[in-house]
Amino acid sequence: MDIFLWWERKRIAFNIIVLALCYTCFEIQKIATHSTADLFTKREMILFIVGYNVIYSSFCVLEFFIKKSNSFAPNMFKNALFICTVVVTIPTLFHILESIAF
Asked: What is the count of structural domains for the chain?
């Protein structure tokens, strides 16, 4: 139960970081593409949020099976945050490079 509580306490911070990053990346993409339209609908944003929380929850479940030390959970939290950060920023980088190249 301690493992579950540790991960759930961190979920709020995780969601705030990922959502702030998503918003920033979407705004950068709007600037890079010179568009005023929203790049994603509300349904797609909800799917993003659900998808990132599924990734987060999978790391929590993973700890139940392979917990090795006290530093395992913080390292897995950092890994989950890194994966979500990469997934969010790669499309933004492609949009920026595309706007520069073309």
From this structure: 1
